[in-house]
Amino acid sequence: MQQIIKYFKPYLLWLLVLIFFVGGQSYVNLTLPDYTARIVNEGVSKQNLGIIYSVGAEMLLITLLGGLFTVAAGFLAAKISTGYARRLREATFTKVESFSLDEFNDFSSSSLITRATNDVQQLQNVLGMLMRMTFMAPLMGVGAIIKANQLAPSMSWIMFCAIGFLIAVLLVLFILAIPKFTVIQKLVDKLGLEVREMLVGVRVIRAYDKDASVQKKFSEANQESTRLNIFVARLISIVSPVMTLLMGLTGVAVVWVGAYLVDGGTLDIGHIVALMQYISQAIFSFFMLSIVFIMIPRAAVSVRRISEILEVKSRIKDPETSEHLHDTVRGKVEFRDVSFSYEGSEQPILNDISFIAKPGETTAIVGGTGSGKSTLLNLIPRLYDVTVGSITLDGVDIRHITQHELRKHIGYIPQKSSLFSGTVKSNIAYGAGKVKKGEIEKAAAIAQATEFIGELPEGFESPIAQGGTNLSGGQKQRLSIARALAKKSPVILFDDSFSALDYKTDAALRRALQKELKESTIIIVAQRISTIMHADNIIVLDNGKIVGQGKHEELLKSCPVYQEIAASQLSAEELGK
């Protein structure tokens, strides 16, 4: 909640100006019935046209002034609400962007999208109306009650009975409707999740002929959301006819009782007209308050959901006093007794990991599924932080370096290739910023991507769909590798980035890497032994521990785990048997 309030502080001065305009609008509304009473009492009853014209002219001027106040209040309310929503949306996006992988695991992607868009929009809409109603309703309500009581104290009971009945109806509606708002927002998340799963997994869904079951699953969530929204809408729609009926009955009661008072000479006809207007204003003010109380719980749900994101304390932070790498970064990476556990996990994923990856050498990491290979690699760019021990880059603990400075010197190719909407050129240059055309072409050539890029209609200017859906898995993987190479980082991390390549392309790519990246520190996570058998140092992981370390030939003799992996992939001749 503190974060939500923090982003509203720049608008406090504008809020004070808005209150002034709303106050002026309320004052005009409360003044007009007095002019109506004067026209009826002094102008009409005494047939004095001068009074009618003069009071009418004053009434017209005040009405125009009230119109200006109304327009100004509406403009400021829109300005504040949209500006605040913009800042809140930017803050939410920036916060999500700073999440470590641990924080991403705490929220589903569909929920993060809904919170950054739908919930912020809900808050904007509610805030725009609340800022006007919250200040106007009490001013109008209290002012109308005071004015009505001054005109006819003996008829105040009519107004209080009407307001009491309206409050009773609203309380019943609130008790029924408010708990549904939280459920509705959760259903929005659920619908977003269903749509996202369908879009991401469309190939699998169609391959297994599960279109009908997916449609049924989405339909169930959609119908539940529709049912709740209709239920809440019906409850809220009751308020308007109830208020209209109440105002009509109240008007009848005022005229009925007022007729006796006028006949007795204790009340003027103009005062009855004014009294009806004041009572209508009082009832309408409570109606506005009811809308406020309907909106606040709905907005509170959105505020809570946005606050959950903004108040997340990131587990990966920049140091208050950072150290700096040398002007020339060599790229020596050293793990020193590193252990790592996921948040809430009882068992460590990695345990007592120590090794050195040197510049100009290729360090490979192999192991069975779930042995912690990708997790180990993700520790280097601080996508996770070590639990115990330290990782150094050129002798400096990476936790003592800002994330920006650290990642500036790392090229990273993830296990799942991610491309962005744009062109082939923009995707390769994504991490390098301003880079020459020749360097882009060279990175593509090293990544063995030149051939298929040349076959595209517009070459390097060919469009790439979001997520690279218009490319094959191998093409996406090669562009991801080219993107990392174009950055010219001293440390390059390959997280099983050759899995979608055929053996010929794999071999050609490895030869190109050895030739062009002679001074870089290359760390490769791989499943294929053929991909890493020529590495300078191979680290074998099993259940999060290093069970072997050395060259291919050494591990074939000394490491049973490596022997087992190699035997499942290589022929007897390749194994030297």
The share of residues in extended strands comes to: 5-15%
Give the overall form.
Answer: elongated
Structural class: alpha/beta
Under CATH at level 1, the class of the largest domain stands as: Mainly Alpha
Using only C-alpha atoms, the radius of gyration works out to: 36 Å
Count of distinct structural domains = 3
Uncertain runs: none
Sheet of most strands: 6 strands, mixed
CATH superfamily of the largest domain: ABC transporter type 1, transmembrane domain
| Total beta strand runs | 12
Q: Which architecture of the largest domain would the CATH scheme give at its second level?
A: Up-down Bundle
Q: Helix fraction?
A: 55-70%
Measured between the Cα atoms of the first and last residue, the distance is: 68 Å
Helix tally equals: 20
Strand order of the largest sheet: 6-9-10-3-11-12
Quick synopsis:
With 577 residues, the chain is an alpha/beta fold. The chain has helices at 2-6, 12-44, 49-97, 101-106, 109-151, 156-200, 202-207, 211-237, 239-263, 269-310, 373-379, 403-408, 424-428, 437-446, 450-455, 473-486, 503-516, 529-532, 552-558, 560-567; strands at residues 333-340, 350-357, 362-367, 388-393, 396-397, 410-413, 422-423, 463-464, 491-495, 521-525, 537-542, 545-550.
